[in-house]
Amino acid sequence: MMEARGDFLILHRSFVWDGESFGGTVKEELLPSLLHDALYFALQGEAPFPRREADQASLRACRHAGLWHKYPAYLGVRI
Rounded distance, CA 50 to CA 21, Å? Predict the structure, then answer.
């Protein structure tokens, strides 16, 4: 499903995620939502980074995808 190799997380084809937590998931949201869910999955193990960094990485992915309206959602997951 997923494994750590040094500073990399390797997602296998069998990794499953549910897309956006609120509402539907459009094409531009697939990668940011995958990143967020994969990082949170890693946090359930012994990932060497805090939750805040996972959330910030997801926000950067949203901005990179042109999803500037996602900042309120970022604030929602930070609560």
Answer: 20
